[in-house]
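Entry for the shared binder. Reason: the reviewer on the internal report wants the predicted structure included alongside the sequence.
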Amino acid sequence: MVPTRLDFVAIITLITMLTGTVASSFAEGQPNVLMIVSEDNGPELGCYGDEFARTPTLDRLASEGVLFENAYVPYSVCSPSRAAFLTGLHPHQNGQIGLATHKFAMYDKNTPNVATHLNAAGYYTGLIGKLHVNPESAFPFDSHQIPSSNFQRKQSVADYAAAAKRFISEAGEKPFFLSVNFPDAHLPFIRKVNGRPLKPLNEDEVQPMPWIGVNSPRLREQVANYYNCLERLDSGVEMLLDTLAQSRHTENTLVIYFGDHGAQFPRGKGTVYEGGLRVPMIVYWPGQTKAGTVREELVSTLDVLPTILTAAGLDVPKELPGLPLQPLLRNETPETWRQFSFALTTGSFPRACFVQHSVRDERYKLISSPQPNTENLDANTYLDKKHPHYVISGATAKEQLAAPKHVQQAFALWSKPPRFELYDLKNDPYEWNNLAEDPDHAEALNRLKTALSDWQSRTRDPFILQKNVDDYVSEQLANRDFKYRKMKDFRWSYIDDFAKWRNQN
């Protein structure tokens, strides 16, 4: 018996009911984009081989999509990292080189970004969670729900899913872009919130990440609760993906998940070490990604905006340093890809000020400190309990003394860095052994120094000039009293000075 057209309609309707796919998903057009961002976590997920992680949803997402083994951020603190992936520009290019809560800001409020690009293309755009970039008016999302940082987790992960459901309903027939920014795993590492996780990990069930270098019952408790935060995050992602499926948009949605930077432990967040810069990144796009693909190339959160614009059929502005990920998503071998990954830190606020750059290639990592052998205030937030912003997940003096000798030496070097550090990431992935003075590695040192200098020149990095470094640091150190926070019209001088320098050079 030959089926009639009505029979085919019935079959398609049944498939739609079973798979959650709507008829519009079969039509060609601009895909929806769901961008999921977690806070302060590196690749401590099951799909990245972490033995303590309990992240079944993200693991499944990776098994159905593409996992990027070497994904990096250009700055390992919230505001600069977020401004970077939203604008597609390095922090020194957009101006957000410190925390928005400390009045650091972009040079120009008219800087194009994901919201302005997609609004103009007819997308309905939304943000759930904090923005944390100055000025917020530069990002004209159509919808912004749960705008606080929510570090105390007063809004549950279920609230984020409910907000996503409202947003998708509001989008109607328009293609949508939705960025969902969860507070986990930012400090405080809260053990359990609204019953999640159901069975939290304890300190005797985990070990600190190997790049931290210290180990004690006190620190293991922090690590356990960090993993509990990640499990709670995973449950939030599960609810979010369920919401997407219930809306019948899964088949026409590009899903991008990544962390905004590494975890807040010693030699992590705020640094240019791997623990701060390397993040998880997973992309799932039905019909466009091959399930279970793992890519080893150096990728960046700067690639997110070019990827979204390309998916939406829009031109990628030539000034953006990122690359569309589409060839990698299709599991192709591109003719050319980036050889180097670059990063910056300024310490992000006056009491943690210290300027450093890093560049890594497939094997080696160079760290450049333009004010060598001076006090690294950012390191002190982790290593000195007398620091006004010492974090509970740092290392106490007793814990440091109990650490292996190579860890103590690394902490000393971090506290007062030399001009250059060089690490062989193949043989020393946790960056314990500085090879900058080793003549056997002179070629790698000089090659990365040249790459860094060329990049600074090409991207018009103001910190390429020692005077700009010195002036910036002097102003930061002069404002460690925080009086500026109560000054309504206070404006860091770099915002105008660096913008002017960049326009002239």
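Summary line for the report: The chain has two domains: 32-339, 342-499.
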